[in-house]
Design goal:
By secondary structure, the chain is of the alpha/beta class. The protein contains nine helices and 20 strands.
Length: 456
């Protein structure tokens, strides 16, 4: 068994609305969307027109910078709308499903061990699953021309109300195994898979062969693959690593084993505003309208988040499930004003990381879950250097100095303070605990965009 990597810094947010471990229904959506905005740095090229018939796996977009990387339709049906924004920016390709779930036919792989790296890459590129391979640094789609030092997979998540990986992917083990075997041939460093030390003994994913196993123990963000890479094999300037989610591995495996493009996954519907927190089975690009039974007629007072509450995207009631997400979080919009606010000593419905309210004394005896909303409880204030980030950030980096370097657009200092090792999700917890209400994720995002522009 691998040594346990104990992380002493972090924070688990006790948000209410955890999804019950049952798949309530399989959703066959009427409309799905392929959204270029799901992919950082993508310059999309449209491959279809309104009215075109497509199958699951039919390319609808390509990357202008790397034309071999294509983005496929999640369902069979007809392209009904190409949505554009300002300056004709391509925002989404909407596809109306025909309900038949017919996929393009790809050749299943009989023996992965007999294939070389070039053959595997060709299959993944033509099959539309290459975008599941994300490159660090920067969190962009991997460049097929650059070999990574290793491939990293997190087999658990510690984000608020995250989908239980052992439950969500228990039926996908054979596909995940096939994907791991294939990706292991694309990197000399092999595939590193990290597990939760507390649940590893009972995890069905522990049976995956051909991986280098690592065990992590600690609070969020211990489950973030970026944090795991930092403690296993940090990324230095000039180095490249690949990361793949479990959902991505399952989709890659289905392409290799069955010869079909299938990006459906078990999705956790969770959060304080979820009427029936549970799982559904649905494809990427699912319209939020399709899950109305889980939030009723309260849409106007809900923030719909594709992903987790810390680093997910606010997609709105008419938005879509992100390509990489297997969680939809429903939070109450915090648009109300509370008189006297934090000055009240007894606020049993509020959670405080700084123990402002006395009920934290009962947490060990009677752990509580809180119906947290999106209220900031204050406005943006001066960016003061303190140790508040250091208490929850389990990486040997200086997030305040990194953020200030990004604000100053000082590339030398950005490199010095760790821009190669983080993306927004790795630093999201710092934003949550920040008393100054600084939007540090946006600052880091702008810094990464600057690096992509200047260092390309």
């Amino acid at each position: 068994m691998s040594n346990i990597i104990q992380l002493k810094k972090g924070l688990n947010i006790p948000l209410s609305g955890e999804a019950a471990l049952k798949v309530k229904k399989v959703v066959s959506p009427d409309i799905v969307a392929v959204c270029p905005t799901d992919f950082r740095g993508l310059v999309p090229k449209l491959l279809v027109r309104e009215g075109d018939a497509v199958l699951a796996g039919t390319p609808v977009l390509a990357d202008k910078k790397s034309p071999d990387v294509v983005f496929a339709s999640p369902v069979s049906g007809t392209v009904v709308e190409v949505v554009r924004g300002e300056k004709r920016k391509l925002l989404a390709v909407k596809i109306k499903s025909d309900g038949r779930k017919v996929s393009e036919k790809f050749s299943p792989v009989e023996d992965i061990e007999k294939m070389d790296a070039a053959q595997i890459k060709d299959i993944l590129l033509k099959g539309g699953v290459w975008p599941f391979i994300v490159q660090r640094p920067y969190g962009i789609i991997a460049n097929p021309e650059i070999a990574p030092k290793a491939v990293f997979v997190s087999a658990f998540s510690t984000a608020p109300l995250a989908a239980d990986a052992d439950f969500a992917f228990a039926g996908e083990i054979a596909y995940i195994q096939a994907a791991v075997s294939a990706l292991g041939r694309l990197s000399e460093g092999g595939v590193h898979m990290s597990f939760n030390a507390d649940t590893y003994a009972k995890s069905p994913l522990r049976n995956i062969q051909g991986v280098k196993t690592h065990l992590f123990k600690g609070a969020h963000p211990a489950g973030n693959v970026g944090v795991q890479i930092h403690h296993i094999c940090p990324i230095r300037k000039g180095q490249v690593a690949w990361t793949v989610s479990l959902a991505g591995l399952a989709a890659i495996g289905k392409l290799l084993v069955k010869g079909v493009y299938d990006v459906s996954r078990n999705v956790a519907i969770c959060g304080p505003m979820a009427l029936t927190p549970c799982y559904i089975n649905a494809p990427a690009g699912l319209c939020i309208d399709e899950i109305q039974e889980h939030y009723g007629n309260m849409a106007e007072s809900i923030r719909f988040i594709s992903g987790d509450a810390l680093s997910g995207r606010n997609v709105g009631m008419h938005g879509y499930l992100g390509f990489y997400d297997n969680q939809i979080t429903l939070l109450r919009e915090g648009d109300d004003y509370e008189m006297f606010g934090w000055m009240k000593p007894f606020r049993f419905n509020q959670y405080s990381t700084s123990h402002t309210y006395f009920h934290w004394l009962l947490e060990k005896v009677c752990p509580m879950r809180y119906d947290l909303d999106t209220n900031l409880h204050g406005g943006e204030r001066a960016f003061v250097v303190s140790d508040v980030y250091g208490k929850v950030f389990p990486m040997n980096l200086f997030p305040v100095y990194l953020a200030k370097a990004c604000l100053a657009q000082d590339i030398d200092k950005m490199e010095k303070y760790g821009i190669y090792e983080v993306i927004e999700e790795d630093i999201a917890l710092c934003e949550y605990v920040d008393p100054s209400k600084i939007n540090i994720q946006a600052i880091i995002s702008d810094g990464i965009d600057l690096m992509l522009k200047e260092m390309a």
